[in-house]
């Protein structure tokens, strides 16, 4: 199955079903005859802009609404607990289970001073292109999370 067909099926499932997490989504895909690895599903969700949002019924995978940048920014801002840096790297602490979303948000900033991010469960490691840019990167991240 092609990537485009798989992503179309993901969209269809998320638009017609309440899916709480990627594991549940993977099971629904499997029930539809689509076997996918967790890493591939995670990349698909990131490419499609899928976010995990809290609803009255619990967490749910959704697509951002009309103003995705502002909506995601607001969600990410609430998920970040601290941003710390030393001479070589930047560490962002998040709420449990939210590091992937925060890392994806930072990656989508497409800041040339950031080589990339590595996300765990509640920690994101931001790797600068140059250690000389650390303060500028921290300022950029903070300004992109601020609603003011």
CATH class division of the largest domain: Alpha Beta
CATH domain fold name of the largest domain: Gyrase A, domain 2
Taken as a percent bin, the fraction of beta residues is 15-25%
The second-level CATH architecture of the largest domain is 2-Layer Sandwich
Unreliable residue runs: none
Main sheet strand line-up: 3-4-6-5
Q: Count of helical segments?
A: 6
Oligomerization status of the protein chains? single chain
- H and E order: HHHEEHEEHEEH
How much helicity do the residues have? 40-55%
What gyration radius follows from the Cα positions, in whole Å? 16 Å
Question: For the residues shown, what is the average pLDDT?
Answer: 86
Global outline: elongated
What's the number of extended β-strand segments?
Answer: 6
Task: Please describe what this structure looks like.
It contains six helices and six strands, in the order H-H-H-E-E-H-E-E-H-E-E-H. With 148 residues, the protein is α+β, with helices and mostly antiparallel strands. The protein has two domains: 3-62, Winged helix-like DNA-binding domain superfamily/Winged helix DNA-binding domain (Arc Repressor Mutant, subunit A, Orthogonal Bundle), CATH 1.10.10.10; 68-145, Gyrase A, domain 2, CATH 3.30.1360. The longest helix has 14 residues, at 3-16. The radius of gyration is 16 Å and the shape is elongated. The model has no long low-confidence stretch (mean pLDDT 86).
Strands, helices and their partners?
Layout: H1 3-16, H2 22-31, H3 38-48, E1 51-55, E2 58-62, H4 68-79, E3 80-85, E4 90-94, H5 99-107, E5 114-119, E6 123-128, H6 134-145
Antiparallel strand pairs: 1-2, 3-4, 4-6, 5-6
